[in-house]
Design brief:
Distance between the termini: 70 Å
Helix content: 55-70%
Number of strands: 0
Shape: elongated
Order of helices and strands: HH
Number of helices: 2
Strand content: under 5%
Structural class: mainly alpha
């Protein structure tokens, strides 16, 4: 059995040449600074929320509200602690890169 020859398809180049746009990639220090800022903002936010819920815990007299604000204070405190650890890691990484 004889094989058929297949012609290669050639594409014609267009007459207009597309311009290549070079995009600047943000440097790693900019990315690290951005991550540090986000971690710091979240740390401050959750620390404030934890303090507010602790104050509401001490101010409330209803048993249901006492349990709710106590639990909320503990959860927000743990989240703030986690963001503190993340912030420390980013600061150490930034010092290691320099």
């Amino acid at each position: 059995m004889v094989k058929k020859r297949v012609k290669k398809v050639t594409r014609k180049k267009s007459s207009s040449v597309a311009k290549k746009v070079s995009r600047k990639k943000p440097s790693s220090s900019t990315k690290t600074n951005n991550k540090i800022n986000i971690a710091l903002k979240n740390l401050i936010l959750f620390a404030i929320l934890s303090v507010i819920s602790a104050l509401l815990y001490s101010a409330s007299s209803n048993e249901l509200l006492l349990n709710f604000f106590y639990l909320l204070s503990i959860v927000m405190g743990f989240v703030a602690g986690a963001f503190f650890i993340v912030l420390l890691i980013f600061l150490v990484l930034r010092l290691m890169n320099k």
